[in-house]
User: Fold this.
Amino acid sequence: MNNSEKKRMNGEAEEENEEDVEDEGRDAWERTYTDERSWEALEEDESGLLQPIDNKAIYHSQYRRRLQSLSATSAASRIQKGLIRFLCVVVDLSKAAGEMDFKPSRMAVIAKHVEAFIREFFDQNPLSQIGLVIIKDGVAQSLTELGGSPEAHIKALMVKLGCAGDSSLQNALELVHDTLHKIPSYGHREVLILYSALSTCDPGDIMETIQKCKKAKLRCSVIGLSAEMFVCKHLCQETGGSYMVALDEGHFKELLLEHAPPPPALAEFAIANLIKMGFPQRAAEGSIAICSCHREAKVGEGYICPRCKARVCELPTECRFCGLTLVSSPHLARSYHHLFPIEPFTEISARQFELSRVASKTCFSCRESLLTPGTNKAGPCAACTKCKQYFCLDCDIYIHESLHNCPGCESRRITPAAASATKS
Amino acid sequence: MLKEGAIESRLVAGPLVVTTWPRSFLLPPHSRGKLLRDFNQSTVVVGHGYASFQANRRSLISFSDDVSLLVVLIDTNPFFWSTSSSSLNFHQFVSHVLVFLDLIVRLSQLNQIVVIATGHNTCDYIYDSSLDTDQVTGEGELPALYSFVLQRLEEFVDKDEKLGAKQEGLSEKRASSLLSGSLSMALCYIQRVFRSGPLHPQPRILCLQGSPDGSEQYVSIMNAIFSAQRSMVPIDCCYVGSHNSAFLQQASYITGGVYVKPQHLEGLYQYLATVFAVDLHSRSFLQLPRPAGVDFRASCFCHKTTIDMGYVCSVCLSIFCKHHDKCSTCGLVFGKVQSDAASDRKRKVPES
Assistant:
């Protein structure tokens, strides 16, 4: 072993000497230093201080690519979105999770970002539920049951952070299948596996388990932290999920948060059903009752289940006594922007903007000047297809990612006569 | 029978009308001793050289934690103001608001104000205290701020009326204003302030609304509310209409703002100065009016009545009070797998 290691080191030294001659011998990480030379992008201002690199154009092009891919998939067929989701997050805590290639260790990075993901998930999908599963010592254990309260999941995860043993993908899939098999038919069943290991130790035939999951309509997605594995790729292809491998911590966070908004659901995956829900009223100020979640006496706070009149502390939840799903109207309203999305704005190049001859060269919503600072020429901007107003790039990103309202369209009053005229 | 798009009391007719400016009910700002700290009257009233003086001062002073950026959304809906039976007409309302804006500017040298008008057919920016073009010298007896805002409001109301004149069939009794548009513009402006660097004033939105809620704006207003909640921008509301506005009550509750419906509208300035002039940091030390109870019950899509138990379609989240076979919004039949006509693939009907 020592000889071969030495040979490899010698070989690399020889390659370094010849790197000016040939390009193909270099690894990707070497190429970022020789070809891209990121240090040359730094600039200094008059006093010698470093100026921050203008990342605006990069962010905007990334955002536009994301938007194009989303609109391409949704335009393909009559896609519905899975709004009521039951997601099982499987965290691999085998020995490979203790690797330090992600600082301070893969496990710590996973825990931090899973916490952020859980909060974002419940923010975007208030009617959905998450369950946590960990793989340790070749065995899969269910950390938390399917539930809708983010705090409970985060607390449970932070306690149980220790890695040991092998990882077993089949055991995890079996456990998740048993958990998700019991949920009602209107829910979308999803699994998100955060896999750090490069192997799996299974007690049986994993291909059978994959077929079982496919039949149960589980949509399994995997985010790998080490390298691409055939088994994971096959699993995701069969079940219709997505398989991505994270390059570094920032990329991992991005991949994880991509699973927060509801995925497009094919119509065959979930059956439309009428779910009975209750909209509880707030309990009267000063009234004392024992809440059903903590079994403690509480004064004035909380809501009253309309069917069995039990007191619950927070919404959304399921009443413990009668099983009625309790929500408030803002929870339903949080998902409306998935159902009524706004169209992407068209990008306007600087020349097109100058040719258009608009009166005011400011963004319609934030009134920031659309001209490049220091010059009199227009920078790139975006325009809405319906109201024809111009917006700056930052407003474009904010409107589509957070606000989901076009200020130009909202500031117009469309009468029914005008609306039918535009449709025809 | 009201004239289409006209409001009864115009702001100014011809040159700036100063003599009819009613001042009797305006309480002087001096008496709000607890709230006023540095009283820079000279820098506000004397318009000459104001812009350069302000710029020099800003560079010397660092941002403390009680500097606020207040975005005020003024409702100019002519349908509301011409039919409102309360003791407040639009003329008096604007005068209360102008003195309040003056108060905010005087509370701290670094406070910023942005005024956006919510009309019936459009919304627009009226005043931005950080813009150099908005610093004007005062002429006549009114301070510079007042005359500038009055003039811009007049122009806005004219524009609003012109846009409305093109439309027909405007005999609606409950005509709403475009609140979602001005809320969206306010939030985009606040995002721009967040982007401007690590030192910025704390933003909040104050909604001075009188028009009733427009149910067609429900989804847009809720989107704006959730976005404000994520950016941690409180939405306060002072509602001067007749019945409570459910949308604005929800907005204040969800974003952590204050909702007030003043009982005595003649003293509107007093409500504004005591409740809404307080910056966000100081709110933790004061007991501001809390809502008695916000009704979060939903209304069913078929009868528009509020229900406390109902049925929700799992695909489009429409709410029904009774069990139906088919969803009226998305057209899907409940309990069966849908056949997708747009898709090419053949589908096997699963055994239920």
Strands of chain B lie at 68-75, 112-118, 123-128, 202-209, 235-239, 259-260, 298-299, 306-307, 309-313, 319-320.
